[in-house]
């Protein structure tokens, strides 16, 4: 997967759609494989999987260029892949290897790739949006129509820093797009409880920006919403909010027994809210055959396999790296 | 006596005090969990580390309060509830989240009593899970107790074992000042003998974990066990140490440290925080001022490096001060005073 | 001025109105006098005057009881007086005297009187609302119908802590009333710039609570709005927002040259937005004569005079007080 | 050479660098002021302390950005703009407001370079006005530089005079790491000779303000002048001192301090912060570890007490370390090593 030097516009061609599918499938398989690998104990730390939300990341990032920025969250693998990060480098980072994208110093929650306009995942809920607004100031000042995107969850929409970021973006009229992935839960608490208004869109609107809800399981819906957001921002009209209704197919982090979830909820959602299934069902209309998708599927599986085996074999950082990349002497 | 983990020991203390004092409330993210969930299970969590388990079923949702992800509001609400007569226990989850809530801790609850001329107290216990060792990365692994020990008006507790944690928590819950209660994540599962009943441990009383003649070793939280290992390794060479666990760093039992240094003439401090403006430097400075004449050798501090906490296993292992490094420091002070 | 052991309800009687007028007039004269005293250099620190906003504090606090709480701001003198704090003790605090309300340790920005349900002014913009929500938890748990009020300015309505507090109050359904005194400015910046939506009421509403704007120069308007807020909160229906449109007659703090304000703005507002003049104009309808008001006026002036001369003469704290009221040993 | 106040010296540095480097932007509350006002005057403020005066007219509203009261967003926006290629100067106004913005400082900008494996830098300068002495009360008078010096990844600057402030600010603006630039409010009007042009002062190079034989005095920010007074008072008794102003506390020029202590054998540290986990204790600890053999007497630290900053004139005067207390400490180390 690559990033584009300039943003794409115009109709969703067959080629673009196949690429979007490839990205969604790559995210899915990356996460499903991690789910397995984590059980083996070979992955350090704790990991939050993005399975189920792929259409959001890819719908949002599909037409972005390298100089458009994204700022991500603790659940960031999908955003990275959608923005074009190398899955080999990501996997190595998650394994804590010396040639991971952040030399093994960051880990799953801190993947960044500045060469792709991916300004970093963030383990602080609500940490990202102010940063995205700062990047949006740079976009505005460059005047090249670039935009900056803050991903966040429903839970993050209760963090004060996020509200401040939205207001600041409105005041400065910068091209920031706030993407709230409402997957219904923040850890073990439902959004219907913790988001007092039970609606993030109306909150954003009350801060003074256009805000839309969309179906986060539908790539086409997310993409269309994002096109409106981009048109607004690239034209210099200030920020925009997208609230994508979605779900996560796994627990909050790996190991979560999910006692807060109804017994069959995930199974049902894997039927009704699987963006890949939905995409496949619609693909025919766009001249994409099941065989097209299957060939992508097998390529993706091979790529993930390769990423995992390389990561497994890769060298860990040297102890001396502990003291590099930071000012230490005193 | 029953063996209990530090997790269960702290949970015990919360149960005891909530039953005894109806003013105690608990609030934080997922302290019960399950609110707004689809299973109907109202205690779906009991705290992300399980410390508040069983409280909701026993004491109800008015006293065990699940909150949105809004740490400033959680800390502020605890402060305000305290001013209005309650005794809140506010869970910050990871100590690192002091970043998004510091104002309510250091400008508000810490200062109320003084700033308002002693006309109120602010009995809040803030619980903070800290520490490296689980590869949680730079933003979930810090030991920021020095930052809060620096703040006048706060009391700061850093237990090293389940027994102390329970007794210190019961003291914290009955103290009228805001107490920052730091719980090292790596210690949660560690067990020791812990009585079922009610007991308290006074703030500002260090525990003398080992007695010896040659070196005074001061260690905090997880470093206590590491220091024990180091000391055990030295026994073969005939080097014996006082091992002092201050248990609370504000107040700090500097007298016990000074007395020990008077006997040994040598001081090693082991602290998981980075070195600058740390508790290690704080104690070293006090001894350099008040126990200077006793010292036979330079004070040695064994700390994390002045870097963020790295993720990779190999790097994090190198980051956390090890029993070996403590042992070397002890050998060094012996050599330098030989 | 006293506080009431229980809240008052029912019509605004002549007696209540005279008392409200006395409080407003006391605030006005307290501040006008401070404006003069500050020039003499006898008052330490920096002071933010409440002149012009009196109808808000008094309209909000008029019917409250002692066990209803208020949490105030850097511009807090008016709130204190409205809630029944002793003006002698306040003045001594502002002068930094040993028997000031906070023993001279707090000062103008940190006056509190717990015996009156006044939980403290706050020099951190946005510091108060989370505290007020905490007090509201205590109110809710007591179940005695008491409420907790967070005063704040238009500028505070951009601070993340304030948004968090509002959402938390909605989620916990606690009796908290957020009173935003929109005086058009935060320091030297206009609300029309810094509040991106240019409307605080709609923001609060989007957090999921009833929210009303009212004329902050009109005691009766503020009072009527507050009655609705109180009915809502005391009945257990959760929080409420009031945005009172008002103005300050002085600069941000004493010494502010107010370059951001149109030349005649204050003079014009002293004509059109003076709550005391408005009250006097309406008073006849309530059986209150100009003579009634004049006699209050002269009593108030005497009381302020007394407060100032006592404060001037009062003893400063002893040096030993530096180390009391806080845990110090180590 | 022209005499300039510290206020004007810092303003100078901002003008110079904004003209030189188009990537430099300034943001914060009222850095220009007047936005949304009724007078139409767009630079109605120039910063609440006047430090950013004249920047808006010269460099325009895209580079001189007035913000709402949203310190987390200000600090975060600075961090994000830095990641995207700008070099922001973010005004926090009072240092105490780190309470409402710490996360973006200590979990974000401080950690980016390390956490992201050196693939980015984060060149932000945060300006913080600090210090007691103006009766601004407990929440507007703190000197919280120890809290930030403790954070790996941050550089921390604490100038004591106008000349240093300008040179250090120019260095800060050209540094690729986040720099916390602490400005003592009481020093803003103080003047000294300051060249008009461009010059820089290296971080981690202390200034030797006075030379002497008997005692090494280390002092920071406002305490430097106080220490000068103390030293002058001692001259009559034939006591002379090295007075070292570290100027930056992270990095810290410990070598200059150690060298001086090697000569004098005596150390006094004057620091306006409360004592615990302070820069005073930090320096004392380093010397107790690395310069122990040179010491002839206990190290003396002269600090504020472990209390919030009180409001009343008499109390605040007692709170701030005075020239007299520094003088007494110097006499004490002389006596104790006699
Ligand atoms: C400031 C902060 N508070 C709490 C946490 C712990 N935490 C990590 S993820 C999470 C839930 C986030 O929920 P949401 O924003 O909905 O994202 P999701 O996990 O659903 O993707 C919480 C509470 C944190 N990392 N940072
Ligand atoms: C967290 C914080 N940021 C900034 C300030 C500085 N400050 C004090 S008052 C004020 C303006 C407040 O405006 P508003 O809320 O409208 O209240 P007003 O002064 O108009 O009463 C500012 C920026 C502060 N005290 N606290
Ligand atoms: Mg979620
Ligand atoms: Mg205002």
Give a verbal description of the structure.
The complex is a heterotetramer, with two copies of chain A (330 residues) and two copies of chain B (338 residues). Chain A has helices at 14-39, 54-61, 77-82, 87-95, 128-142, 160-172, 191-194, 200-206, 219-234, 265-272, 275-283, 290-313, and strands at 69-71, 148-153, 176-182, 185-186, 189-190, 211-215, 240-245. By secondary structure, chain A is α/β, with parallel strands linked by helices. Chain A has one domain (14-313): Thiamin diphosphate (ThDP)-binding fold, Pyr/PP domains (Rossmann fold, 3-Layer(aba) Sandwich), CATH 3.40.50.970. Chain A has a five-stranded parallel beta sheet with strand order 1-2-3-7-6, sandwiched between helices. In chain A, helix 1 packs across helix 12 (290-313). The mean pLDDT of chain A is 96. Chain B has helices at 6-20, 55-59, 71-83, 102-109, 112-115, 145-149, 162-174, 222-235, 254-264, 279-290, 313-319, 323-336, and strands at residues 3-5, 24-28, 64-66, 87-94, 125-130, 155-157, 179-184, 191-193, 207-210, 215-219, 241-245, 248-250, 267-270, 300-302. The N and C termini of chain B lie far apart (44 Å). Chain B is globular. In chain B, the strands form three sheets. A seven-stranded mixed beta sheet of chain B has the order 3-2-4-5-7-6-12, with helices on both faces. In chain B, strands 9-11-10-13-14 form a five-stranded mixed beta sheet, with helices on both faces. Chain B has two domains: 3-193, Thiamin diphosphate (ThDP)-binding fold, Pyr/PP domains (Rossmann fold, 3-Layer(aba) Sandwich); 207-336, Rossmann fold (3-Layer(aba) Sandwich), CATH 3.40.50. In chain B, strand 6 (155-157), helix 7 and strand 7 (179-184) form a beta-alpha-beta unit. Chain B is an alpha/beta fold. The mean pLDDT of chain B is 98. Chains in contact: A-B, A-C, A-D, B-C, B-D, C-D. The structure holds thiamine diphosphate (2 copies) and magnesium ion (MG) (2 copies). One thiamine diphosphate (TPP) sits between chains C (48, 74-75, 123-126, 152-156, 183, 185-187, 252) and D (29, 69, 71, 93, 97, 100).
